[in-house]
């Protein structure tokens, strides 16, 4: 009877160890699958999309400023809007193409097509202004075309910058959703710890049973199993905490976008002031004769003339490097899955080698 109870005890311990191993292994792999999927989507698509949208927005603002300064300085008659305008438009077009590859929003593709169409229209209007500025006596028409082109970019209606801002905001919302998905609920964290502690305790209890029943030293395979369990748990816990890296990436990225917008606003003010003076000087002759539309534009320009920002281009560049560094640090590669599977495999092999031979020997001896 005593031998039968011992056999049943050994079988129960073996079944308990395998059950807990399955639960620990499945929970670890589920955590990896969730974190890996969210991390990959955030790093390779959403973060890149936000960066490229901010780059495209900044490039369009700089292109508009370059075109305005070229025409107001008198160089437009010879060089048109200038090389800087062409370079910035090329940067904006390239960035928008990259956004098309990374967009994650429901209406992102349609909004992007609208923006790309508006860019083509804007460049065409600048070309029309250039043609008028090159004609003798065409400064007034050129100034009007330039004003309409700039209003397409900066206006209050469905304009280029407004559409880009909406697209940027939508992707920032997607990134926020990624951060929420990457965050592990407290009850899931508690279950991971409790399962690991329960399996570790059962390994220790099994070792104690073998020590008392068979008067043997510590079972080395159960020690190996305990070490593999600790390693697997630490790796799983590292994956659970990887959402902090994504959160830091998101915070740094949003800070970079805000700094870039501050610089863009400063550049926009310079260009809009020059544009107002050009229109007043070539079209109206006197500001009081320009009508209500230009009067509202003048009010907006005057209201926007704030002191120059303390943010510099180097600050934005440093933030961009920091974003990339944090994104790389938050990467959850397939190497983590390989290690997790290897540790779980070692754990079950150690459990089998540590429990089955004593069980079989005892049952054979009991007969």
Account of the 3D structure:
By secondary structure, this protein is mainly alpha-helical. The mean pLDDT is 80. The chain has twelve helices and no strands. The longest helix has 71 residues, at 2-72. The chain has one domain. The chain is rod-shaped and about 110 Å long. Keywords: Membrane, Transmembrane, Transmembrane helix. The chain crosses the membrane at residues 192-211, 218-240, 339-360.
Number of domains: 1
Structural category: mainly alpha
> What does the main sheet amount to?
none
| End-to-end C-alpha gap | 12 Å
According to DSSP, the number of beta strands is 0
Mean pLDDT: 80
Short description:
With 367 residues, the chain is mainly α. The chain has helices at 2-72, 76-79, 83-102, 108-134, 139-154, 160-182, 186-214, 220-240, 243-284, 291-303, 313-329, 334-366.
Short descriptors:
single chain; 12 helices; mainly alpha; rod-shaped; 367 residues
Helix-strand blueprint:
Blueprint: H1 2-72, H2 76-79, H3 83-102, H4 108-134, H5 139-154, H6 160-182, H7 186-214, H8 220-240, H9 243-284, H10 291-303, H11 313-329, H12 334-366
Helix pairs in contact: 1-3, 1-6, 1-7, 1-8, 1-9, 1-12, 3-4, 4-5, 4-6, 5-9, 6-9, 7-8, 8-12, 9-10, 9-11
